[in-house]
User: What shape does this take?
Amino acid sequence: MRTTAAAVGTLVFAATVPATVVGVIPRRLVQRDPGARRASPPALRVLGRVLGLAGMVGGFPLVADAFVRFVRARGTPSPVAETEELVTSGPYRLTRNPQYVGVVAMVVGEGLWWRSPRVLLYAAGLAVGFDTWVRFYEEPRLQRRFGDAYVAYRRRVPRWFGSRPAVSAATSLTGPGSWR
Assistant: This one.
């Protein structure tokens, strides 16, 4: 795929999927959340605002950087227009899924900012959904597509956070050490 087509595809994807997941859905949840913004001590409100802002501000660059790297690898974040190259640089050196980490951080930030239990519950659901998607769709697909390069990358970099335990080449995607 040409870089221009990848950039246009990524912009269309970003304007639809992440914009809905991070923007539209949390906003609708908070509008329908009678528990949101309930009276709380000023210190707790300030803490929620500070932590919420940190989540939103900290998550956005992870998503934006991932999308730029996908374009450079001549593809998009969408499974219908995958990258031609395995992306392993930048935040991908620390976690195999920085875009999902960024999205969840932004939604948790929104939940804290708005003091919305519904948005925080939605963020937890997103985390579980992303983990399921990654384990059962993305990882097997990436291993088939990129073979040994992906296996080596998987050994080096955790799925989510932390250090990566040593994994033998014979370990399957669902075997020991694949919990991240």
Notes: DSSP finds five helices and no strands in the chain. The domain at 3-156 is CATH 1.20.120 (Four Helix Bundle (Hemerythrin (Met), subunit A)).
